[in-house]
Write a structure and sequence with these properties.
There is one protein chain. By secondary structure, this protein is α/β, with parallel strands linked by helices. Helices cover 34% and strands 18% of the residues. The chain has 14 helices and 13 strands. It has helices at 31-34, 40-43, 57-64, 85-94, 98-103, 109-114, 135-145, 165-172, 199-209, 228-235, 237-243, 249-253, 274-284, 304-312, and strands spanning 50-51, 70-75, 78-84, 123-124, 129-130, 149-153, 159-164, 193-194, 213-218, 221-227, 267-268, 288-292, 298-303. The longest helix has 11 residues, at 135-145.
């Protein structure tokens, strides 16, 4: 059974994506988007990084830590599954897959990384885009299922590449107009994590809320941000084996989140034009910007998804 379902509600504030959906749960795409040229064979990024279902999780972590947000799981070039950074976070302490580490590996970090394969935690039968599929159809899949990355395959299942919100945003930027303030698009309030929290706390919150990033706050002021990729790099074999004082993964999970979070914040003001957020995302190679006031107090967050929906979907 497919892991994805139609845009489920998450904990806390209602998902912002609902702003862009019609009553039947589908996006009301702008007429301009239907006129944008190109299908997935033109827009998709290739080649995609592929691994076998039998590859150890340690190998997957190493590959992903080189700044790959996903790995396509294939056999003889035919797609069999998808492994996301959040799937690894789920396995290493954030969600239900941690039961494998607990039960099968008795919390042994080295065993959990070296003896378990990606097949155990990958998404089976993921939602895909086809090489001949047009952009509006792919945008609808992203909105309806609440996902920002799709494997791109030929009709016979052979892997072609991958398409992400970032790829679509780059393709559309300059084609459609912005002209809207960030305050109209940003998500607020923001799910955050305190500076006294642990890596384990952050992983659980990422999986529970379904976000790939958590601003780190101290006395209402944002001091850093931890992303799914920060956690992947933290658990990459070259890093985690140096940190481990024992084989018990729970000791590593107690690490302070401030040791993992990035201090290089990319910020904008609520009154800035949305184009400013896009420019900073592209120039800093980030997928979100923090919206702060003059006192560096966090008032919102604008992600690639927020920008993409603002560009493509009719708003009431």
């Amino acid at each position: 059974m497919n892991k994805y379902t139609r845009l489920p509600p998450r904990k806390g504030k209602r998902r912002r994506e609902y702003r862009w959906l019609r009553s039947d749960g589908t996006p009301n795409l702008s007429d301009r988007i239907h006129r944008v040229p190109g299908d997935m064979e033109i827009i998709a990024r290739k080649p995609a990084i592929q691994v076998s279902p039998s590859v150890p999780i340690a190998n997957a972590l190493k590959l992903m830590s080189e700044n790959y947000r996903s790995l396509l799981v294939s056999v003889a070039g035919v797609l069999k599954g998808l492994l996301l950074a959040t799937d690894l976070i789920d396995y290493l302490g954030g969600g239900d897959h941690f039961k494998i580490v607990e039960g099968r590996h008795r919390y042994n970090l080295f065993s959990a990384l070296d003896r378990e394969s990606v097949k155990s935690i990958m998404i089976h039968d993921p939602i895909v885009a086809y090489t001949d599929e047009k952009l509006p159809s792919v945008l609808e899949k992203m909105a309806v299922y609440g996902i920002g990355l799709l494997p791109v395959v030929y009709r016979d299942g052979r892997v072609y590449g991958v398409i992400t919100e970032h790829d679509v945003l780059k393709h559309l930027y300059g084609v459609v107009e912005l002209g809207v303030k960030i305050s109209k698009v940003m998500s607020s309030p923001v799910v955050t994590i305190g500076s006294n929290s642990s890596v384990w706390d952050a992983m659980k919150k990422i999986i529970a809320y379904g976000f790939r990033r958590l601003p780190v706050v101290e006395e209402n002021t944002v001091i850093g941000i931890v992303t799914a990729m920060d956690l992947i790099r933290f658990f990459s074999p070259s890093s985690v084996f140096k940190r481990a004082t024992s084989s018990d993964i729970r000791e590593v999970l107690k690490t302070s989140i401030t040791e993992v979070a990035s201090k290089n914040l990319v910020t904008v003001k609520p009154e800035d034009d949305l184009s400013e957020a896009v420019k900073k995302m592209f120039s800093k190679n980030v997928s979100s910007v923090l919206v702060v006031n003059d006192d560096m107090e966090l008032v919102g967050i604008a992600t690639e998804r927020d920008v993409l929906y603002a560009l493509t979907v009719k708003r009431a």
